[in-house]
Design a protein that fits this description.
The chain is α+β, with helices and mostly antiparallel strands and 146 residues long. It has a domain of 99 residues: Aminopeptidase (3-Layer(aba) Sandwich). 25% of the residues lie in helices and 34% in strands. The protein is globular, with a radius of gyration of 14 Å.
Amino acid sequence: MTASPHVKRGDELTAQDVYGIWRIRDIVFAVEQQCDEPDVDGLDLLPTTTHLWFADDLGPTSYLRTYVGTDGVRKVGRVATRKEHRGRGLSSALLRAVHERWGADEIRLGAQAYLEQWYASFGYQRCGEDFMEAGILHVPMRRPGR
């Protein structure tokens, strides 16, 4: 189906990697979704952050990052796929790659509310009340470790 994703820790990213990652996130979150908060949050270049993505000649086609928060729990976020690559299972493949590597541990995320059932199909469960982030309704979710 899909080739293996690129997987790099934040401290391993090249300038070209960072540019591509920020470009896909800018296109999806700032332009398409008109998020009202800055995307760059100080986590991307940390050695405790891991970036996973698929790419074509124009850069990342689908992307997510995962990191261990200050609470010691792994988080998944910034899941984004370029519009022309949606519906191909790329985000699903990235999420499965996260579960293959870190599925023994609890994983948490803030899902955009309309994606709650999609994340539930991967074993995530709601773990709190809805909240607003970047002007978009989100749902806190967790996936227990296996």
